[in-house]
Amino acid sequence: MFDIKNILNFIKNNFTAYDVFVVMILIAVYFATRLINLDKWPIFSDEGIYIRWAKVAWHDPTWRFISVTDGRQPLQTWATIPFLKLFPDNALLAGRLFSVATGFIGFLGMFALCFYLWGKRAAFIAASFFIFIPYFVFYDRIALVDSAVNAGFIWILFFSILLVRTGRLDIALIFGFIGGFSLLAKSSSRMFIMIAITAPILIFNLKKKSESLLQSVNYIILFAIAFGISFFFYNVQRLSPFFHYVALKNTTFVMTFQEFLQTPFAYVHNFRYIPIYITWESGFVIVPFSIAGLYFLFKNNFRLFLYFLAFIIAPYIAIGFFAKILFPRYVIFYASIFIIAATYALLQIKNLKTRSFIIAFVIATMLVFDHPLLFNPAKAYFPDVDRGQYVEGVTAVWGAPELMELMRDRSHEKPVLIMAEGNFGLVADVLDVFLKDGDRIEIKGFWPLDEKHLYEYQPELVKRQVYIVFSHRTEFPESWPMELVKKYDKPGNKESLYLFRLVSK
Questions:
Q1: Which of 407, 426, 406, 425 is nearest to 416 (CA)?
Q2: Residues 291 and 341 sit within 8 Å (Cβ to Cβ)
Q3: Beta pairing partners, 357
Q4: Which residues does 173 contact at the CB level (< 8 Å), separation at least 6?
């Protein structure tokens, strides 16, 4: 039975006033690191898609499942709508606040999990690492769903341990809700739920086979209930006539078993990239402490070591063999494992000064990576694949807010039509993020955008100003009826965003 009095008594018995003060400081620092310059990072093209979906779903309830038309789960779309209502004139900020919120849910989960496993000190160490690890500092600040996936992983891991140790039905029900919300974030969360079936590892005792077997059966029954609730949530998507696109979309990113049997080693290069990505984006220095933590778990708590190992190895094998496309954000949950394992390693150091020094050293090295993420995006320390996505490539749209502000100023004289190179997921969606109610601006996406479109829209010049935005093309024939207004360069001098004005010819 839920009883707020029991909760308050638990806090009173386990946390001093000083502890509560430290928790408040940690929470404040979390939000400071996530909110500083939140809308200053250049918009990533996928953010344009997801924010546009949320704007459409907000204004038209019949399109609440709009993301399913592209095979994407709807949680991000739904959860972004309240933030759009709070910040209707800053959709980018609203979209990114979704990830700030899900990151905070992950932060609370990390605190709760480590407190449950090893006590108060562990919770404080893990929460501190969570705040500063570069992986989360970035993905908790960008309007993608991966922060929510990581939060789901942490809470699934926590409640699977709780469920197997307590055998309580109420825990199973909450576990099911957590799993359901995770599945509405991303299909890959199924992997975490499936691995959780191995939780009886934590309680099985060869000396008490009968009792352990009975406890394991009890867990499997409760797990089945949680599993059923999770997939009940997942099947809410069947309310959309486009639900079949979800399975179709998954095949874009993951091999089917038939494809695997035909070419089983097509993507084994993933085995090399996974460690590189998670080590780099976690800030390097935490990794040896994580390895040490797993070693100490092996020595001191072999069952828990095996359970963590299941969450390390099973995804590594699955992603290594089956992932057709691999980006660092797809393996973000490994950073949570790093934090948990490193926390256990530091608990083995009994000298408080030594432990505090090491914690400070690890955080200081993380801050080297964090600083450009917060204050200087052009200098972000990313592996090439992410630097291309978020900083230098065509998907990093530098200058979009400034461009739209210029269009807004010019629209006071005469309405503006923007012809954008790229429709779905490209610059048209990105520019739409910065469109406000009442703007005398229309955005139309074209792919490809070429000379015939420029002449086709010549008649529009009678009643509107027409501008053309190119994000992929770099060469423009002089015969085209347009003149350059502004060029927005990107770091690395590889790509630029071009703004032209259509002229009569």
A1: 407
A2: yes
A3: none
A4: 225, 226, 229
Q: What pLDDT, in 10s, does the model give residues 285-325?
A: 999 999 999 999 999 999 999 999 999 999 999 999 999 99
The topology (CATH level 3) of 396-502 is D-Maltodextrin-Binding Protein; domain 2 (3.40.190)
Q: Is the peptide bond before 448 cis (omega within 30 degrees of 0)?
A: yes
Structure tokens at 410: 């010019």
Strands in 465-470's sheet, in edge-to-edge order, are: 441-446, 416-421, 465-470, 496-502, 482-489
Q: Summarize pLDDT for 458-502 with one digit per residue, the tens.
A: 999 999 999 999 998 888 999 999 999 999 999 988 889 999 999
| Beta-bridge mates of residue 420 | 445, 469
d(CA 132, CA 281): 12
List the chain domain ranges: 4-386, 396-502
Of the candidates 150, 153, 174, 152, the residue with the CA atom closest to the CA atom of residue 162 = 174
Q: SS3 of 472, please?
A: coil
Alpha carbon distance 456, 453 (integer Å): 5
pTM for this structure?
A: 0.96
CB 83 within 8 A of CB 97: yes
Spatial CA neighbour of 468 closest among 502, 439, 503: 502
What single-letter DSSP state applies at residue 390?
I
